[in-house]
Amino acid sequence: MRCTSLSSAWALLVMGALAPKATVGLEVDRFTVDGGGGTSSGGEFALSGTIGQPDATSTVMTGGEFELEGGFWPGLGEQTMYALTLYYINQQFGRVLLDPPPDDPNLPLYPAGTEVILTAEPNEGKGFKWWTLYDPNHPGDGNYGITDTNNPIALVMDSDWEVEAKFKCGAGSALPFLPVILGVLGLAVWVRRRA
Predict the structure, then answer these.
(1) Helices and strands of the chain, counted as H and E runs
(2) Calpha distance 180→174 (Å, rounded)
(3) What CA–CA distance (Å, rounded) separates 107 from 98?
(4) Under a CB-based contact definition with an 8 Å cutoff, are residues 33 and 11 in contact?
(5) Which of 7, 82, 95, 119 has the fewest CB atoms within 10 Å distance of its CB?
(6) In whole angstroms, how far apart are CA 158 and each of 104, 147, 152, 154, 184?
(7) Is 88 helix (H, G, I), strand (E, B) or coil?
(8) Strand pairing category for 66-69 and 45-52
(9) Rounded distance, CA 153 to CA 193, Å?
(10) Is the bond preceding 100 in cis, omega lying within 30 degrees of 0?
């Protein structure tokens, strides 16, 4: 005995209403009794599941210009992913934090459209100088690089990106101390002349 779920009946009704009656003959040659699905989450974990039996194969049924794919979440595995490649200058002086963190830190991949926040975190006594963002059409080519001193920065993963983080040895610049140094030298010269 074969049964269809309410959602399958609606799908057939919609397909029947949209299909050109005279030119395309659509036939559903197999179906399953399917149930709903849902997500349960707690803490950092989430579990998505279904009740019932989705179609065991990923066979796509076609007829004319129409297509019906079985299963509860068809097409989810076809999401476009983009790579974020990080390079460092003076890597021993700091690290880059990614938010959201990638599944594999050695090969950061993100779904298309994801906004990724890059934060340069220098080690104690070290500093961050700038980012270089390379044009995705000219990866690694300094002629097509954009320098940005903001920290953090946000990237939208609309293509593969190559980003370079440049760290420096000191946390700050010697320029703020220059007046003090010159003042001490001037005082020393003035004291020496008076003596």
Answers:
(1) 2, 12
(2) 10
(3) 12
(4) no
(5) 7
(6) 19, 19, 19, 12, 55
(7) strand
(8) unpaired
(9) 54
(10) yes
Strand-pair partners of 165 = 88, 131
SS3 label, residue 123 = coil
pTM: 0.50
Which residue, 37, 29, 27, is CA-closest to 7?
A: 37
Structure tokens at 107: 């090969």
> Long-range contacts for 73-76 (Cβ within 8 Å, ≥24 apart)?
73/37
Query: By CB neighbour count within 10 A (0-12 exposed, 13-18 middle, 19+ buried), where does 118 fall?
Result: buried
Strands (E), the chain: 34-42, 45-52, 60-63, 66-69, 81-89, 94-99, 109-111, 115-122, 127-134, 145-148, 153-156, 161-168
User: d(Cα 15, Cα 24) in Å, to the nearest integer?
Assistant: 11
pLDDT over 60 (residue 181): no
> What does DSSP assign to residue 140?
T
